[in-house]
C-alpha cells in the first residue's frame, strides 16, 4: 500500500476514534482495552489463586507484562505494594504517600478509582519502561475479590498522551456491557 493511502486510511480511523487503538497496537504501546482486559484477568486470577498468586505479578518476564505495560498489585487497606514487576524496590513498602512530580497522590486516587463498580482510571506521571523520562500514564484500577482479604487492587496502564479520561471511561463502559463488547 502506498504511503498516501496509508495516511488517508489512518485519518479515517482516527476520525472514527479507532486510529489511536490501531496506532498504539502497531507501536508497541498498550491500549486501554488491553489494560482493562489484563486487569480483569488479574483480578480473576487472584480470586481463584488467592494470596499465593501474588508472586506471579513480580516477574518482569511473566505473562502480566506486555508491550510497554504491566499489572501491579497493591493493598489499599494495609498501605503497601504487594507486587510490581518493574519496581521490586516498592514491594512491601507504604504506597499512600507516593506522589508524582505534580504532587498527585497516585495510590490514594487508584484506591478510590478501584472501588467503583467497574473500576476506574487515574492519570499521573510515571517512568515508562525503557524510557528514562517521566511520561503521562493513565492506569485502570480494579478491586480484587480474594477470600479472607480486603483492600487488594490490581492496576495496569497505558502511556497515552492524547486520550482523555472521558474517552477512557467510554472504552470502560463499552467493555463493561457484554452486549457491546467481545473480549480480546
Automatic annotation (TrEMBL):
Localization in the cell: Cell membrane
Domain of life according to the entry: Bacteria
Pfam families associated with the record: sCache_2 (PF17200)
Keyword Ligase recorded: no
Span of domain Single Cache: 21-108
Keyword Lipoprotein applies: no
Keyword terms of this UniProt record: Cell membrane, Membrane, Signal, Transmembrane, Transmembrane helix
Predominant cellular place of this UniProt entry's protein: membrane
Membrane topology type: Multi-pass membrane protein
Residues of the signal peptide: 1-24
Protein name, entry field: Calcium:proton antiporter
Organism listed in the record: Candidatus Accumulibacter phosphatis
Taxonomic placement: Bacteria, Pseudomonadati, Pseudomonadota, Betaproteobacteria, Candidatus Accumulibacter
